[in-house]
Amino acid sequence: MHIMTVCLGNICRSPAAESVLVHRLERAGLDNVTVSSAGTADYHIGRPPHEHSVAEGESRGYSFTSRAAQFAADHFAEADLILALDSSNEADILALAQRPEDEAKVVRLGAFASDVGEGVRDIPDPWGLPREAYERMYYQIEDAVDGLVAAIQDGTVQEVVAGQRAVR
Questions:
Q1: What is the sign of the dihedral through the CA atoms of 127, 129, 133 and 135?
Q2: Residue 16, SS3?
Q3: Between helices 13-27 and 131-154, what is the axis angle to 10°?
Q4: CATH number, domain containing residue 34
Q5: How far is CA 1 from CA 56, 61, 75, in A?
Q6: pLDDT tens digits for the chain (168 residues)?
Q7: Which residues are designated catalytic?
């Protein structure tokens, strides 16, 4: 399985989600899952993750190896699951979908959060905000990633994705 995390510029939220997911998958012994990230905009192509995203992530034990890339329609063929970090990015990704099978791969990361019963929350973009915003971002990402890892382990990922697709 290949999972792609996607935000706007691919320097704050999606590389953080990628790093958290890689770490949690390794910890769970799920070595048959690969992870990458991208952004819907071309603002930061080739740049490393934002310094606050890296600093907060490293303080939590995560490592970063990716550089910013832009999401393109070709990514639908590469990814089995595409995790948008907010509803705006989800809409931008879906606008590139060429087939129903492409759309079926897209869901917001918040669909796996522990508080999803209250509705799927977006993970706010911390870009330009103080470091505390990155700390809040990580708490949301970690919670949702834990739910995703549990769904991978119990085989319910597609049920969650289908359930969210039904309410789009």
A1: positive
A2: helix
A3: 40
A4: 3.40.50.2300
A5: 28, 24, 14
A6: 999 999 999 999 999 999 999 999 999 999 999 999 999 999 999 999 999 999 999 999 999 999 999 999 999 999 999 999 999 999 999 999 999 999 999 999 999 999 998 899 999 999 999 999 999 999 999 999 999 999 999 999 999 999 998 887
A7: 7, 13, 125
* Pairing of β 34-39 and β 81-84: unpaired
Q: What's the structural domain count of the chain? A: 1
Residue 14 to residue 38: CA distance in whole angstroms: 7
Domain that holds residue 11: 2-167
Q: What global pTM score does this model have?
A: 0.97
Instruction: Kindly give the interhelix angle for 13-27 and 51-59, rounded to the nearest 10 degrees.
Output: 20
Residue 130 and residue 71: Cα distance in Å, rounded?
A: 27
